[in-house]
């Protein structure tokens, strides 16, 4: 009986190990879509959510997702990209933010890479045959016109920007030129870190009639604090990102980042299903829309700020 028991026990161990190997290597695991977010803030997070939702809906949950956050660091993005590219189970990649897209494109030339929340893709060195995406750039002259219509008596416009970012500097020049064309005086408010930009705005608020915040990850990460500073002294803040209006700015003209991500996910599933190549999807641009924060606008009006809200009807 002892020998029979030992034999049965050994057989059960062998059978259990066989089942483990079968499940581990049978290919039952889902292929992976690897995602890099350059940072976590409302716009980037919304775009990522939209992308994943679209892919899941269109592919009936065929893929699993690995989502990594670079915490605003280019070096982190490059390290994450290298680790993800080394994985054989990754079928495609998605990048949210310019440095995240650059990190992936520099290291991967075969598998598809999808991106959004990239303002100047043509200048970023990410245009390759395996890359497709949606830029969040729009004609920033529209932003200056929007500010002029929203706050008719505004003369001096503070423009937040990160001087260490090529994208931020390019947007700054666009907005400055547009402001001057409309008879508005631009004032630069620069900061490389979150603390820098908060301090720079605080010291500039008495010099400006309205504050513009372009699309920038450093700025977006502290948007609620920036908006609170503006609201406290009665200076309207206008953002070039519709999604961030919920964080406290008075108004925004820009992209719906969830929709950007969702549209990217729809395009990605066409590639994943073999209907087309990434190069056939190419690089597209979306149309900006207006968002207003009624609570903040009402508060500013009570403080004596002259606003013109009727034009959005």
Describe this structure in words.
The chain contains twelve helices and twelve strands. It has helices spanning 2-25, 42-59, 74-85, 98-107, 141-150, 166-181, 194-204, 217-221, 223-233, 257-272, 278-281, 294-302; strands at 32-37, 64-69, 90-96, 113-118, 131-135, 156-161, 185-190, 210-213, 237-239, 251-254, 283-285, 289-292. Strands 2-1-3-4-5-11 form a six-stranded parallel β-sheet, sandwiched between helices. The protein has a six-stranded mixed β-sheet with strand order 7-6-8-9-10-12. The model is unreliable at 13-27 (pLDDT under 50).
Largest sheet: 6 strands, parallel
Uncertain parts: 13-27
Record the strand order, biggest sheet: 2-1-3-4-5-11
Q: Residue share in helices?
A: 40-55%
- The coarse silhouette is elongated
Helix tally? 12
Number of strands: 12
Features:
12 strands; 6-stranded parallel beta sheet; 12 helices; alpha/beta
List the helices and strands and how they pair.
Layout: H1 2-25, E1 32-37, H2 42-59, E2 64-69, H3 74-85, E3 90-96, H4 98-107, E4 113-118, E5 131-135, H5 141-150, E6 156-161, H6 166-181, E7 185-190, H7 194-204, E8 210-213, H8 217-221, H9 223-233, E9 237-239, E10 251-254, H10 257-272, H11 278-281, E11 283-285, E12 289-292, H12 294-302
Parallel strand pairs: 1-2, 1-3, 3-4, 4-5, 5-11, 6-7, 6-8, 8-9, 9-10
Antiparallel strand pairs: 10-12
Helix pairs in contact: 2-10, 3-4, 5-6, 7-9
